[in-house]
DNA sequence: CGGCATCCTTGGAGATACTG
DNA sequence: CAGTATCTCCAAGGATGCCG
């Protein structure tokens, strides 16, 4: 794939631009959910609906971080937020279709981890 | 593992410690390969052996970053480095077993991306 | 060609405190 | 309980330059 015409004289590092933006869907996927917390939180929501503080406990994220990541995930359509204004307010987070579609990824990750994480001597 | 006794009066955010370190293998896996470049590079190496500059082109990472991530990946046993001291030096990177074992993850990621990335309107 | 040393900018993320 | 607002810190990562 001669994607790089060698004719380019100004072949600086800054010239790569965004040619890697859509190399393949994996890259795109990574760009969207490639951060630690996003993965951790989404994986945590596989169990089903969870509350803010539940997630805080299970993931270990701070309120600040959790709030932000949750916000981002909702914006990108990975999760859905349902608020109940009853007693002292309760908001539940749950995976959307888009988010649930990531389950195979987590399964694969889980399987890999089971196979290699232990023997690596963390 | 009741690491968090609800009876704790000093329930500060800093008390969570590492109870999330081994919640499940997914978290562990994410800790190891949860960064953008690691995923991107590993995915790129699925095609087979590649040279430094090949990776630089295809991933769009700078030499500095690439070098570092590659180094980390090698340390963790994901990839293998073969250097040929011929003419102007050539080093090839290739996935190890451990690294190849991640392929299912990338496949899942790829499939997900194909399904959802386009319709999301990047 | 491969890749390390340096500088510098950004944002991810924790601590803490405060509000509805 | 569920956030939001700040402040701060540090690592990730890009740009450049240089060297084997």
UniProtKB/TrEMBL annotation, chains A, B:
The keyword Membrane does not apply. It holds the Pfam family HxlR. The keyword DNA-binding applies. It comes from the Archaea. Transmembrane segments: none annotated. InterPro entries: ArsR-like_HTH, HTH_HxlR, WH-like_DNA-bd_sf, WH_DNA-bd_sf. One of its GO terms (molecular function) is DNA binding. Residues 24-121 form the HTH hxlR-type domain. Keywords: DNA-binding, Transcription, Transcription regulation. PANTHER family: TRANSCRIPTIONAL REGULATOR, MARR FAMILY, TRANSCRIPTIONAL REGULATORY PROTEIN. This is Transcription regulator. It comes from Halococcus salifodinae DSM 8989.
